[in-house]
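Form 7-S
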Amino acid sequence: DPLRLLALGTDASFYRLTPKLAVKVRETAEVVRVVRACAARGLPVTFRAAGTSLSGQAVTDSVLVILAGGFRDRQVLEGGARVRLGPGVIGAEANALLAPYGRKLGPDPASIGACMVGGIAANNASGMCCGTAQNSYQTLESAVVVLADGTRLDTADPASRDAFRATHPELLHGLAALRDEVRADAALAERIRRKYRIKNTTGYSLNAFVDFDDPFDVLLHLLVGSEGTLAFLAELTFRTVEEQAHKASALVLYPDIEHAARAVQRLDRQVVAAAELMDRASLRAVDGRPGMPEGLSALGPEACALLVEVRAASGAALPAAVDAAVARLAGVPTLGPVVFTAEKAAADRLWDIRKGLFPAVGAARRIGTTVIIEDVAFPMEHLAAGTVELQRAFARHGYAEGIIFGHALDGNLHFVFTQDFGHPAEVARYQAFLDDVCAMVAGRFDGSLKAEHGTGRNMAPFVELEWGAAAYRVMRRVKALLDPRGLLNPGVVLDDDPQAHLKHLKPLPPADALVDQCIECGFCEPKCPSRGLTATPRQRITVTRELARLRATGADPARLARLSADFRYWGEETCATDGLCATACPVGI
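Output:
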């Protein structure tokens, strides 16, 4: 029915496609049936976990397969050293399961309270503290997968691997041949190694060809970060990492971005767990908000901050960890003393600065505009220059509200700005800005156009620009081997249409003073008591916006009548009105 197709079709990105069919699956056998049915009819199919993805990788105008309440199996193995999870397990739930063992998942994305394990692996999620050593690619040990023809493969099961060798010899031989070709091309192999020294989720995980010999291991790691374009991840086994529970944090202020970058270059993950960079515009965005430190407004126009965290396995070991971090930071001029606090409430107030950046821009945006968060990565030696160039790009293209922050230890920067997609001139401005940024990041600095948010639709046309023709040809051959008919999530990761990222842009028509604040991130959904019965808050807002658009334009009276009638039960009468959604809303709805 039109209401649920519209509501279920939304994700956290700024793209909108409405599926023709939405199928809720709860077990692997159902996925096999759906994939085979779609293959028999030549129908494209897209898989959806939590829909918190930011780059358009979870929307489709064909068949949308949604994890709906199932795929939540979980098993702790070897005293917490490993964990086996269904793709429908929320990341924070997995960490709660592992907490008694002093362990956690390696990836720590900001959306971990809402995103699901399947999406974490499919997007090669990382986060603030995991860097490149503990991301999904590095910590995934095995998986049960469903390929484009409906074949089920368990990469950890010898019998399943033997059966797959018998039925799919060409695929395995093709992967082995690609492995050998990549390694024989010394320049390409070295480029791949160099590109993955920093965070990179642009295109397919070509490091699989230089890191692994066994075609099954190559296949498994190609699926990490493939965003549902190569296979469905039906079960995942991860190696876990130690959770160091004792922490101390410091907000260190610098006169400018160059000094902050120099300080970051003196740090590494042996000394600190996180070093979050925030430019002057970032600090200005949260100045005056409740709980923020005094004095932010008095900082100079070029000031910059690092929010640094150290961790230790015990309280007794924490002071030495703090001393080591202070020693590393010494020698770079600051705007005040470097003072760490281990007091939880004080540290939480510091981290509220970082957490408040995205909401600050989102809540202040003009009605009808979209808040966009992009992420890039620079080689560490170019971090300062890259940050300055991003600031200049904002100024050149008129994005005065833009802010820059990020995981500086990895050279990974996020930049947030607001965009109106309702007018052709504004779309053209966005296009010019993105072209400028891509040329700078990929061309001038040889960085990553996508560091951790996945390629999606937004960067699919720019993959060859970043990687070059030789690597792009390898990616095309990977797609042809695993999805020869191109039915799995077309238009995502790879797209030869240079204008693809400017199509299917999501409208956000004015609807209600409360509704207009929503950025459709999906963080509210796990909190909603009626999510398994009818709708989530995000889905209700999506429909509310469409109702407002139809009323304002008078475009389709029959559709308006149908949606209005269905929404009474689906949207209003089954809302628990308990406000639990508000506890997770990043823009304070």
